[in-house]
């Protein structure tokens, strides 16, 4: 059950402990405060007292958990959590989240993500960003009728990181799927906790500069690992370094080659990446 919650809320084990503590302490605080407030009133009738208590506790609960979440460092989680409850109670329309996929290879992950959100009214793949003319992902963009942006390295790294173009396209969330350039600080600053990447191995092993594509699988096989897998993680200013969101493993058999391992890993990527993207967006909207 705890694992389910961890996956559902996309939080680390420690954050889950803090979140549970916040719920527990916030809930007790609100019950206590509700009783103390009612003690100050003259309400004698049991039915009126219970009804007032329920109303009071419902009003106090969000305030109490928000307050308690601060020392536990969980304010932003609870702010989003309460906002979601509020939107579902009021029936307010949730705005569409626009994704940009950064990819420069064949684009098989991009295709899976596009397929996942094709009929989704709340999440839309709105832009493909690519640094390689002729990359397979550009044909996918054409076929799927998704606008694309071909980017230039100097401009990307040293002159604004295309933030204004992304904002112009109303991009809210960035998914890297086979994008090899380092993400510049300007982009990370413009999209805090809104850029994720997938790496074809179990980080922190076999990551870092130059570790991409078949090089990763070669290194894993050379090291005689018994398993490999995928890591989905937030992007920070270092290669393959941000907080891990999700990992899944596959066994390596003695007969595996770079190609067969790559295929196993790709299968895991296709199975999990679109789903994890959706969960992160749902949990942070
Ligand atoms: C994937 O293996 C992913 O892990 C890595 O780049 C590769 C992209 O493959 N970041 P594809 O272009 O999506 O097929």
Shape field? elongated
Instruction: Flag low-confidence runs.
Output: none
* Percent strand: 5-15%
| Helix count, DSSP H or I runs of 4 or more residues | 11
Q: How many strands?
A: 7
Task: For the record, give the distance between the C-alpha atoms at the N and C termini, rounded to a whole number.
Answer: 24 Å
List all distinct small molecules, including ions and cofactors, that are bound in this structure: 5-O-phosphono-beta-D-ribofuranosylamine
How would you briefly describe this protein structure?
The chain is α/β, with parallel strands linked by helices and 285 residues long.
Characterise this structure.
The structure is a single chain. The chain is of the alpha/beta class and 285 residues long. The protein is built from eleven helices and seven strands. It has helices at 2-9, 13-39, 46-69, 75-90, 108-117, 136-144, 153-158, 163-168, 185-190, 214-222, 258-284; strands at 97-102, 123-130, 148-150, 173-176, 195-199, 227-234, 244-251. A seven-stranded mixed β-sheet has the order 3-2-1-4-5-6-7, with helices on one face. β4 (173-176), α9 and β5 (195-199) form a beta-alpha-beta unit. α3 packs across α4 and α10 crosses α11 (258-284). The model has no long low-confidence stretch (mean pLDDT 92). Bound molecules: 5-O-phosphono-beta-D-ribofuranosylamine (GRF). The site of 5-O-phosphono-beta-D-ribofuranosylamine (GRF) has 13 residues, from α5 and β5.
């Amino acid at each position: 059950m705890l694992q389910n919650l961890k996956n559902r809320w996309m939080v680390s084990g420690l954050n889950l402990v803090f979140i549970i503590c916040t719920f527990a302490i916030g809930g007790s605080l609100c019950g206590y405060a509700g009783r103390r407030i009612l003690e100050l009133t003259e309400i004698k009738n049991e039915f009126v007292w219970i009804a007032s208590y329920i109303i009071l506790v419902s009003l106090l609960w969000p305030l109490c958990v928000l307050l308690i979440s601060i020392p536990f460092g969980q304010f932003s989680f609870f702010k989003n959590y309460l906002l979601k409850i509020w939107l579902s109670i009021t029936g307010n329309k949730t705005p569409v989240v626009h994704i940009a996929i950064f990819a420069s290879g064949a684009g098989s992950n991009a295709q899976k993500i596009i397929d996942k959100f094709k009929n989704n009214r709340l999440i839309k793949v709105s832009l493909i960003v690519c640094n390689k003319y002729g990359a397979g992902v550009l044909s996918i963009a054409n076929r799927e009728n998704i606008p694309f942006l071909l980017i230039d390295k100097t401009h990307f790294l040293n002159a604004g990181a295309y933030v204004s173009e992304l904002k112009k396209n109303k991009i809210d969330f960035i998914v890297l799927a086979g994008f090899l350039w380092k993400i510049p600080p300007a982009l990370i600053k413009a999209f805090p906790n809104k850029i994720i990447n997938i790496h074809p191995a179990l980080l922190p092993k076999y990551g870092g500069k130059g570790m991409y594509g078949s090089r990763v699988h070669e290194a894993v096989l050379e090291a005689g690992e018994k398993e490999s897998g995928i890591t989905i993680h937030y992007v920070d200013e270092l290669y393959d370094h941000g907080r891990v969101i999700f990992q899944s493993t596959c066994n390596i058999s003695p007969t595996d080659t770079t190609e067969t391992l790559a295929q196993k890993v790709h299968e895991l990527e296709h199975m999990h990446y679109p789903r994890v993207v959706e969960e992160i967006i749902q949990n942070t909207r």
